[in-house]
Design brief:
three-stranded antiparallel beta sheet, GMP Synthetase, Chain A, domain 3, 3 helices, 2 domains, three-stranded mixed beta sheet, alpha+beta
Amino acid sequence: MGTTNHITTKWLGKKAFESNNPSGLNFKIDASPDDGGEGSGLRPKALMLSALAGCSGLDVAGLIKKMKLEVDDFHIETIANLTDEHPKYYDAVVVEYHFHGNNLNEKKLQRAVDLSVEKYCGVMEMFRRFAKMEIKTFFHKK
């Protein structure tokens, strides 16, 4: 049997909730004013995209260090299509990895991305179960 994660999410009134995390930090979830909330927290579906980018980003950052690669800056853009019908979900997601620097080892950085996407990132694997995934890598010389 695998590891179990247990998260507690407590209603704060109206459409706001507070959720804990194994890190010991809490965060607030809220709906937009259009949906009856106050917009004072993070949106659940968008959080899934942050979790996807964060999971893969942690892998890639670890591999950058392990491979001793020179990267001045690195960010991930996650662009997702939401279905029109309820329950709305992401059916197609593009994940863009952007690397900035004068001395980028493009081959090794691409290998780091590939390892995360294909082998290490569990959130990526979860997304593959319900969405068409497209991965793009960009190298920006300064």
